[in-house]
Amino acid sequence: MSVPARNVYLDNNATTCVAPEVLEAMLPFFNDLYGNASSMHLFGGQVARHLDTARSQVAALLNAQPEEIVFTSCGTESDNHAIRGVCEAQPDKRHIITTKVEHPAVLNVCRYLAKKGYRVTELGVDKQGNLNLDELKSAITPDTAIVTVMAANNETGTLFPIDEIAKICAEKGVTFHTDAVQAAGKIALDMQKMPVNLLSISGHKLHAPKGIGILYVRRGTRISPFMLGGHQERNRRAGTENAPYIVGLGKACEVAINAMFDENNRLRKQRDRLEKGLFDAIPYTHINGNPQWRLPNTTNLGFEFIEGEAILLHLSAAGIAASSGSACTSGSLEPSHVLKAMQVPFTYAHGSVRFSLSRYTTDAEIDHTLAALPPIVEKLRGMSPFYADKLREMKAGAATAQQ
Amino acid sequence: MWNYTNSVIDHFTNPRNVGEIADANAVGQVGSLACGDALKLYLKIDPANEVILDAKFQTFGCASAIASASALTEMVKGKTVKEALAVTNDDIARFLGGLPEQKMHCSVMGKEALEAAIANYRGEKAVAHEEEDSPVICKCFWVTEKKIRQVIEENHLTTVEQVTNYTKAGGGCGGCLPDIKRILDEMVLARVTGSGKPASEGAAPKKLTNIQRMQLITKVIETEIAPHLQADGGGIELIDIDGITVTVRLQGACAHCVSSTATLQFMVQETLRRKVSPDIVVVQQQD
Question: ipTM of this predicted complex?
C-alpha cells in the first residue's frame, strides 16, 4: 500500500483541514495587521478594508450582497441567531416548522423554544431521507414564524430542494432559514435564484478554521440581534470582528468558488468508486440516503450484522478516519436520529459508516480504504451471532433446494 | 473517541475464544439487533464436577461489548459453575482495567449471558424477556424492574444516569426515567432504613422515656440519615424535638434540590418512624 498509515482522512463532514492559502492569508492579522476595525486610525482602517474584501468574497459564494453577510463565531451561532432572532422579531407568531433530520444546532433550538411555549412541527422524511413538500405546504399557518430546513444532510448527504421550499415560503409570506453548513462550497447556492431569507455557513467545513461562520440575512428580513453590545456587523452581531478568521473564511470561499465545479466532478468520481468498490466487495451492504440527489463528497453505507464503533476502531487502526451513526459511537444508546427518521432497519442502522471526502482526498486514499475495509467487515461478521444465523439459514435453504 | 484501557483495546483487537462450541451443553444468548448489541455464550461443562472446560462466544456490538465477552470467557474457563456464577459485571469491567461508565451495560450483558447459559445447562427454561415475571420498565430496550433492581443492588447505583449506563433503561425515548427514579428512591430508602429486615435493637420499642426518644432520634439522624444526605452533597441539622414533632434543617445541595421536601418527608420521617416511633412527624425549619 502506497499510503502511509494514519493518513487517510475521510471525515470531512465533521471538519476539514485549513487550506494552505487560507492559513497564509490569515497570518498577517495576528501580529502586523492587528488593529480593531472600528478604530479611527491607520491600524483600524487597514483591517477594515480587508474585512470588506472578505465580506465580498463570502457574498460571491452565495451570489448575495456583501451587506447581507453577518460574521458569527460558528454555524451553531448562525442557526441560533436565525431561529431565535426571527421568533423574537415576530412575538405574535408562535409556530416553527423544521424536520426530524436537522443538525442538533437547529433541532435543539426548536425543542428549547417548544419548552417556552412554541408549537413545533418536525416534518418526517421517507426511507431515502426526502421531504414531502405537500406536507410542508400544509403545515404552514398564519401563526408560523419560521421554516428552517437544512440544505444538505450531514450524515447522508441527501439534498433538500431548498429553492422550491424557499418559493413555497415566499408565496406564503413566511421567513425561511436554511442550515447550509454542509452544502456551502460543495453545491451552488444562488441567493438571486432562491428566495431564502436566512442561511448559515460554518467556516471549518470548507477549509477555513473552526471558530468562524456567517449568517446570510436577506435585505428586509425581520430579525432581532442575537449578541448585544457594540455596533459591529451593522448592529446585527456585536463583538470585535475576528479579523484573521474573517479574512480566512473570505479566502476559503474564494477558493471554493474557483474549485467547486471541477472538484465536484472529481469528488463524485472518487466517492462513486469508493462506494461501488465497497458495495461490490461486501455483501449485505446498503446505501443510506438518496443515491442520486446528494452531496458529491458523501456516502453513508450500512453493513448488516455488525456494529459501527467496532468498524471505526478497526479502520482507525488501519489509519483511516470515518464516522458512524451507530449508537455506541455517540455515547447515546440509540442509532442516529437521522437514520431513525429514515426508518433504516436496525440490521444495518447500527452498522452504518459515513465516508466524506474533500478536495484533498487522493486516489491512493480511496485505494487504501477499498483494501482495508472488506477484511474488517469479514472479521467482525465472523464473530457476529446474527451472521452465523444468516449463514445457517442460507445453508438450510441451499440444502432444501438440492432436494 | 472513547478512552479505552489498553486491555479493552487488546481484547477488542485480538478477542479470545471467538466462535461456537459444537458440543456445548450450555448456551445463552442475550440482547438483539434492535438493542445494538447481543452476546451468545457457549460453555462446555463437565457434568461430573461442573467445571467449565471451554467457553466461546459470538457477539454483535461495539469494542467494549467484544472486549467484555472475550474477558468473560477467559474468566470462567476452569471455574466451577458455582464459582462462575459469583462473577459480577464489575469483575468483568475490572478484568479489563475498567470500562467507560456509559459502557458498563456491556459488562452487564456479559453477566446476563453467563446466567442464561448456566440456566440452559441446568435445564431451566430460558426465560424470554416478554415472559419474565416482572413488569417491563423500559420498553425501548425491554428492561424489567427485576433487572433494574438487581443491577442497582449489585453495583450500589445512586443516580438514574448510572442506571441507564448500566442497563440501557431510559436511554431511548426517556419515558421511563420517572419510573427508574421511583425504583431508585425506594431502594435508597430501603438501604437507609433497612426495610424488610427485622428492626434493630432498640428500634420502635413501646415505652421510651422522653430522654431516651430524644437520644435515639439524635443517634439515628447522626449515624444513618446524615451520611446518606452527605453522599449526595447535602446535610441535615436537628433543630428541635417537641414530643413526636422533629424539626430539622436541610443544608447544602439538599436545600436547593427540587425534591428537598419530598426527601424530607419521605426519607427522614420514614427512617425515624421505623427506628424510633411510628407516630413521628418531621417538619422543616423555615429560614
Answer: 0.85
